[in-house]
Amino acid sequence: MYSPPSVLAANTHAQRGLRANIRWQSHSRPSFVDVVVVAPSAAGWQDRRARIREQFPRNLQLMNSSRSATLKFALGTRNISETAVAALEAEQGEHQDMLLMDCIDMDDDLNWNWNWKLDGDVSATTSKVMLSIAWAVQHYRFHYFFRLGDDSYFRIDKFMELFDTHQIPREKAVVGQILTSEILGMTQEYPQGMGYGLTYDLCSFVSTAMPWLLDTAPEDGVVARWLFATGAKFINSSAWRSIIDGEKCDSDMVLAHKLPPEKWPDISDLGTVEC
User: Fold this and answer.
1) pTM for this one?
2) Which residues contact 80 (CB under 8 A, 6 or more apart)?
């Protein structure tokens, strides 16, 4: 019988109080959904969340009617004002799509140092991803968990087309724009943090192994490190585009990082646009 793990498990950084509450209600049995989409966000980025809230339902309508997906935003409530926490709670009351976590709100600039030490400070983004995966496993059975950058344009319908046409694996897979770099002293493949998908089996491993996992930066490299011994396949897809690196967007892409917000409706409604 399936028994979801507790998300309150302590890990190696428990003495610093990282692993703590996510404000959710426990389900006796997890529901099924094809894709759980979670976008780590920050208290002051309401405009990013608003854009995704507007776009995501439009793309759900284009998805195969037999498929399903759910969207959540992951936010930290530590080191922000009571007023900011109250504003997040009000936003959650209105939209019911937020995971409010007892972790720090944002990483500082130092967390972008690719030579981050193994004993470095806890990363807000890594914490949000870790806790979100645990939340997803506790509440759902699913094919994919999709970590979405809140500054990325994402087509859930196109992602499910990849799944339905067997262009991405059903198990032990990380799907996205895959790069290779030296991270934390080891050369490894990793999915760029603009957005990537993890199969259910890998998420189940992460949720169980939480007490022993790194929670430093950079988040995308650390997530890849979590999966080092799992035999995970890193699947590079040309349907991911980095607009800031000069890549072009079109109607068949799954994700575009840093696509100007005014272009988002054009992609869905008109097909190809210049960007």
Assistant:
1) 0.86
2) 43, 105
